[in-house]
Write a structure and sequence with these properties.
Blueprint (H helix, E strand, L loop, with lengths): L22 H5 L7 H21 L8 H5 L11 H19 L3 H22 L3 H15 L14 H22 L12 H12 L11 H27 L10 H14 L15 E4 L5 E8 L2 E5 L3 E2 L4 H15 L2 E7 L1 H11 L2 E12 L11 H12 L2 E7 L5 H13 L25 E8 L4 H6 L10 E11 L4 E9 L7 H12 L7 E8 L1 H7 L6 H13 L6 H8 L4 E9 L5 H11 L9 H4 L18 H4 L6
Parallel strand pairs: 3-5, 10-11
Antiparallel strand pairs: 1-2, 2-3, 2-4, 5-12, 6-11, 6-12, 7-8, 8-9, 9-10
Helix pairs in contact: 2-4, 4-5, 4-9, 5-6, 7-8, 7-9, 8-9, 11-12, 13-16, 17-18
Length: about 625
C-alpha cells in the first residue's frame, strides 16, 4: 500500500522549510548521478579482463587481446603479474565506487596513472597509456560524484577480509597453477598443485616444476602477488584506527529521555530508541530525534521520529544529509501513518504497508462473550494447574528478584544469538528503566512437583514458587506500555502466554495503563482478506504463500495469537527510496534483527560476540501450542 504525499499540509504544521520533490533532488548534489555506477562497472570489466589475461595464457592470443591491450594494467606476458594485481584491486574497489566512496576513488586515481606509467616504461606503447590517463582525467573531472565518507568499522572486518580475500586468492592461484599443463614436468597430483598454490601465496617454491623458466617465474610471481594483496588489505583494515559501531552515548540518551517524557505517548516504538546499540540524530532545534543503525550500507531507522511533530522535518533533513554524505540507503521500518506521510513528503521517499500492530484498550477488554471463549478456557485450565501471575513495575523489584528474572529469561532465549532492533530494548532491570512493567508466571512447588523437577536443570526453585514465564513491557507515554520481551520455560504448560497477557490487561487500570501494544503481525491484512469469502485468486495465492512461509517465519501464528485478544489493528509501514532497494533493505533489517548473521563462527567470536546493547528477540512469537485452541486443535 503506497502512501502518497498529500498535496496540502495536513492538520499538523510541518515547518516552513521547502521540501525537495524527489529523493534524487535531495540526495545527489552532483549533476551526473549515473557516473559512479558506470565507473564501477568499468572497473569491474577492466578487472575481469586483467584477471583473465593474467590467469589464462590462451586469452592473450585471441581477439580480446586487442581490447585488453588498451586497458590499464596491460596483458602482455611480462606484465601479467602487474595485470593480476591491478585486476584484483579494481574488483575490490568497484563496489566502493558504486557507493560513491571517496577512498575508493582515491585508490582508483592512484592505480590508473600507475598502470599508464607501466605501459610507457615496459612496453613503449602509448595507446594503453593514453587510455589510462584518459580514464584518470574522467575520474578527476567527476570527482564531486565521489563524496561518501567511510562506513563505521571494527577490526572484525579485517578477519572477514582475510577469510574472503584469502579464499579468492587460493581459487585464483589454483587456476594459475593449472593453466600451463604443456610446461609442467611430469603429472603433478591435485594435492601437489594445492600445496604449490598455498606455498606460492607465502612466496615459497612449491613441488610443481615447469620446463620453461619464464612460465615458472610467471606462476611464482602471480601467486606471490595474490598473497601480497591479501596481506596488505588485511593489514590495512586491522591497523587503521577503529571506528566504533553505533552506540547511544549517555548525553544522547538523556536528551532522548527528555523528548520521550514530553512526547512519548505518540508512538509505541518510541522507547526502543533507547537501545544502546543505536545512534541518534537530532533536529537543529533539538525538539526531535531519529534513532538508527547502519547495516550493509542501509541507514535503518525504526518507528516514527521522537519529539514534537513540527520538528520532525528538521530531524528528517539531518537524517537524509547524513545518508547522502555516506552514500547510505535511507530506510525506515515500522513507522506509523503520520510518520510515513512526513517521511514521504519531506524526503521524497515511498512507503508500503508492512503489517499491523495489535493494540488493546484496557477499558474495553473483557474475558466475557463468545469471542473470548478459547482464551477464557485456556486461562482457567492453566490456573487449575497451579499457575499464578504477578504484575509489577521494575522499580518494585529488589535486586535479587531482578537478577533471577534476567537469568531465567537468558536461559529461555532458545538461541545463542541475541535478536532485536525495532521492538526490543535489549536489557532488563536497568535502574533508568524503572517505569517498565514485568509480568511473571509462577507455579506452586507442591502442585507442580513434576514440572518443577523437570525444570531443575534449567532453573532453580526459590521459596514456594517456581518462575515459569516472563513478559516485559516498556513505557508508551504515561498511560501505555509496549511489549518488549516474551519468554517462558519450555517445560511449562501451554497457555502461559495467554495467562500473562490477560493478567497484565486486567491489572493495567490499577497501574494507570489505558492501552497495551502487543506483537506486530506482518502482512496481517493480506492474511485476513485472503481467508474471507469472495477473495480473488491473487489474494488467495498471496495468502497461501504467507502460510507456507509461516513454517519457517512466525507470520500466521502471530496474527492468530494477537487476534485472540480482539485488538485494534494499527498499520505500520516501511519507507524506502526505490523499489529496487527493497531487497537490500530487507536483508539489512534481517541483519539488524539478527535473523540473518554474517560473521565469524561461534568458536572464533570470543569476546567480540556480543555487541553493545545486544537485544532479546524482537517481540518473540508465542509457541505453537499457545496458538492452538483449548482442545489443542
Amino acid at each position: 500500500m503506497n502512501i502518497s504525499a498529500p498535496p496540502q499540509p495536513g492538520p499538523v504544521p510541518l515547518g516552513s522549510r521547502p521540501a525537495p520533490r524527489t529523493l534524487r533532488e535531495r540526495a545527489t548534489p552532483a549533476s551526473r548521478p549515473r557516473v559512479p555506477t558506470l565507473a564501477a562497472y568499468a572497473c569491474l570489466l577492466i578487472g575481469l579482463i586483467d584477471l583473465a589475461a593474467a590467469v589464462f595464457p590462451g586469452f592473450r592470443h585471441n581477439r580480446v587481446r586487442l581490447l585488453a591491450g588498451q586497458l590499464p594494467g596491460g596483458t602482455t606476458t611480462v606484465a601479467s603479474v602487474g595485470s593480476l594485481m591491478v585486476g584484483v584491486l579494481l574488483l575490490l574497489l568497484a563496489h566502493g565506487l558504486r557507493r560513491r566512496k571517496r577512498r575508493a576513488w582515491r585508490a582508483v586515481v592512484v592505480l590508473l596513472p600507475a598502470g599508464g606509467l607501466l605501459h610507457l616504461l615496459r612496453w613503449h606503447t602509448t595507446a594503453a597509456a593514453v587510455v589510462s590517463f584518459a580514464l584518470l582525467l574522467v575520474m578527476v573531472a567527476y570527482r564531486r560524484e565521489f563524496y561518501a565518507l567511510s562506513d563505521p568499522r571494527t577490526r572484525r572486518r579485517a578477519l572477514l577480509n582475510f577469510a574472503t580475500t584469502g579464499g579468492v586468492s587460493l581459487a585464483l592461484g589454483m587456476l594459475i597453477t593449472n593453466a600451463h599443463p604443456d610446461h609442467e614436468v611430469g603429472s603433478p597430483s591435485l594435492e601437489e598443485r594445492l600445496r604449490h598454490t598455498a606455498y606460492g601465496l607465502f612466496g615459497v617454491e612449491g613441488p610443481v616444476r615447469y620446463t620453461s623458466q619464464r612460465v615458472g617465474d610467471l606462476v611464482g610471481y602471480s601467486l606471490g602477488a595474490l598473497g601480497l594483496i591479501t596481506l596488505l588489505t588485511t593489514s590495512y583494515l586491522f591497523l587503521r584506527p577503529e571506528k566504533p559501531r553505533a552506540e547511544l552515548s549517555a548525553g544522547d540518551e538523556e536528551r532522548v529521555r527528555e523528548l520521550l517524557e514530553r512526547h512519548g505517548a505518540r508512538d509505541s516504538l518510541g522507547y526502543f530508541a533507547l537501545r544502546r546499540d543505536k545512534s541518534v540524530l537530532f533536529s537543529p532545534t533539538g525538539k526531535a530525534a531519529i534513532a538508527y543503525r547502519v547495516e550493509s550500507g542501509v541507514m535503518l531507522a525504526s518507528g516514527d521520529p521522537i519529539g514534537d511533530v513540527e520538528a520532525w522535518p528538521g530531524a528528517i533533513h539531518v537524517f537524509m544529509d547524513v545518508a547522502r554524505r555516506h552514500a547510505w540507503v535511507p530506510a525506515v521500518i515500522g513507522c506509523g501513518e503520520t510518520g510515513g506521510e512526513v517521511w514521504t513528503r519531506e524526503a521524497g521517499l515511498d512507503a508500503l504497508e508492512l503489517g499491523d500492530e495489535a493494540v488493546v484498550h484496557t477499558a474495553d477488554f473483557s474475558l466475557g462473550g463468545r469471542a473470548m471463549r478459547n482464551v477464557r478456557q485456556m486461562v482457567k485450565r492453566v490456573e487449575r494447574n497451579g499457575y499464578s501471575c504477578k504484575v509489577r513495575r521494575v522499580h518494585d523489584l529488589d535486586d535479587a528478584e531482578r537478577e533471577r528474572i534476567a537469568d531465567a529469561a537468558a536461559r529461555w532465549r532458545g538461541t545463542d544469538i541475541e535478536r532485536g532492533f525495532s521492538t526490543a530494548l535489549g536489557r532488563f532491570g536497568d535502574p533508568r528503566d524503572a517505569g517498565c512493567v514485568v509480568v511473571t508466571a509462577h507455579q506452586a512447588a507442591d502442585e507442580g512437583a513434576v514440572g518443577a523437577g523437570e525444570a531443575g536443570s534449567e532453573g532453580k526453585v526459590t521459596g514456594a514458587d517456581d518462575l515459569k514465564a516472563v513478559l516485559h513491557f516498556v513505557p508508551w507515554g504515561p498511560e501505555g506500555i509496549s511489549l518488549e520481551l516474551m519468554r517462558r520455560d519450555r517445560t511449562a504448560d501451554p497457555g502461559l502466554n495467554e495467562l500473562l497477557i490477560v493478567a497484565v490487561l486486567q491489572a493495567a487500570p490499577a497501574l494507570g495503563i489505558r492501552r497495551v501494544s502487543l506483537n506486530f503481525a506482518m502482512f496481517r491484512s493480506a492474511l485476513a482478506r485472503g481467508e474471507r469469502l469472495g477473495a480473488g485468486p491473487v489474494l488467495r495465492a498471496w495468502r497461501w504463500l504467507l502460510v507456507l512461509l509461516s513454517r519457517w517465519f512466525q507470520i500466521e501464528s502471530l496474527y492468530k495469537f494477537n487476534a485472540k485478544f480482539q485488538p485494534e489493528w494499527v498499520p505500520r509501514y516501511v519507507v524506502f527510496p526505490h523499489s529496487r532497494d527493497l531487497p537490500r533493505i530487507g536483508l539489512a533489517a534481517m541483519r539488524a534483527e539478527a535473523f540473518l548473521t554474517l560473521g565469524l563462527p561461534k568458536w572464533a567470536r570470543g569476546p567480540l560476540r556480543r555487541r553493545p546493547g545486544a537485544a532479546g528477540p524482537t517481540r518473540p512469537a508465542p509457541d505453537a501450542e499457545s496458538v492452538a485452541g483449548p482442545d489443542g486443535s
